[in-house]
Amino acid sequence: MSLQWTFIAGYLYFEIAVVIIMILPIFSPRRWHQFFRSRLFAMFQQHAALYFYAFLGVLTLFLMDAIREMRKYSNSEPLPSHLSTEMKGHVKLFRAQRNFYITSFAIFLAFVIKRLVTMLIIQYELELKAEQIIKQAEDTVNQAKKAMLDNDMQVAESQNYKELKKSTGSY
Description:
Radius of gyration: 34 Å
Mean pLDDT: 85
Strand content: under 5%
Low-confidence stretches: none
Distance between the termini: 111 Å
Order of helices and strands: HHHHH
Number of helices: 5
Structural class: mainly alpha
């Protein structure tokens, strides 16, 4: 494999590792949110969109090159004279197809990672909203219980007052 395809394959393996780490429940959305809001990530984030689209452009160029190579070697009819020339053609076709799959999966995983980051941030924000709603509901329930107890105490006091009034009124 040439240096450029080795680099793209290495990038693909890196993306696979990142996706696996993001999918596994090793880190909570709170930890991911802290990482995405850290100074380290902020330095990268300033130009992240530019890097992302520039790298996707380069990967797209390599994808088009792989498609061109696949067409070149799949349409050629080998000369029936030598088996070695036919095998060389098949080897070149295999390499072109391998490069096509490596590049297309790298592009696909770049979009998957971008979506996973967005979903992790949204999940953290939804968890915060859920915690706030639960806290508000608990406060409302506590206030309702307190109001009910106050109301019960007032009813009990009025009944005691009426009983005392009846008992004192009968003497």
